[in-house]
Design goal:
Distance between the termini: 24 Å
Number of strands: 9
Radius of gyration: 16 Å
Strand content: 15-25%
CATH superfamily: Glycerol-3-phosphate (1)-acyltransferase
Strand order of the largest sheet: 1-9-6-2-5-3-4
Largest sheet: 7 strands, mixed
Order of helices and strands: HEHEHEHEHEHEEEEH
CATH topology: Glycerol-3-phosphate (1)-acyltransferase
Shape: globular
Number of helices: 7
Helix content: 25-40%
CATH class: Alpha Beta
CATH architecture: 3-Layer(aba) Sandwich
């Protein structure tokens, strides 16, 4: 919380998404290397919305879980590489409850960096929930030497928060159209 409040924030919302959000849950996507500020951003922009995040069952995932819980988030532990089926079922159950946005890093937990995997798209197809791209760009930062080049903003740095346009992924897409949706999300999240 202290780090987030020390930063200089600018919001880019080219589709006026913030003014059009309705009460139904979204599948909120952000790159793995930007997970650090997402709980703070969420608490500031969406203080009355509940959020559940898919977090890796690794030791690092436990650390992240303890942080997000301080912001009122809940976690589903699993990933595309570990406990995938169990985690997917838990996500579906949470979505069916209808009272919590779902946060997903489409390139996590092992990458490759900035390459979206299919899970969030399949969830949107199966549930009819829109995918909401959310990203930020840090002017002055430190990048860890991890697979995702995890980003840590330096105090007083400028942050540009970019809010994308929500999209429901049709269940009737051809493989080519599905790949275009993946590319569209990757472009919306940037690098």
């Amino acid at each position: 919380m202290l780090l987030g409040s020390s930063l200089k924030w600018k919001i880019e919302d080219p589709h006026a998404t913030l003014t059009r959000l309705d009460s139904k849950p979204y599948l909120v996507t952000f790159w793995h290397n930007r997970i650090l500020l997402i709980p703070y951003i969420y608490s500031q922009l969406f203080p009355n919305r509940k959020a559940t995040t898919l977090i890796s069952p690794s030791r690092d995932g436990q650390w992240i879980t303890s942080i997000i819980e301080q912001f009122g988030f809940s976690a589903i532990r699993g990933s595309s590489s570990k406990k995938a089926i169990v985690a997917y079922r838990e996500l579906l159950a949470e979505i069916k409850k209808g009272n919590s946005d779902i946060g997903i890093t489409p390139d996590g937990p092992r990458g490759p960096i900035y390459v979206a995997q299919q899970g969030v798209f399949r969830l949107s197809q199966q549930t009819g929930r829109p995918i909401l791209p959310l990203t930020y760009h840090i002017r002055h930062k430190y990048e860890l030497k991890s697979w995702d080049r995890f980003q840590i903003p330096l105090p007083l740095s400028e942050i540009t928060l970019v809010i994308g346009e929500p999209r429901v992924i049709s269940a009737e897409l051809t493989e080519e159209q599905f790949q275009k949706e993946i590319e569209s999300l990757q472009n919306a999240l940037g690098k």
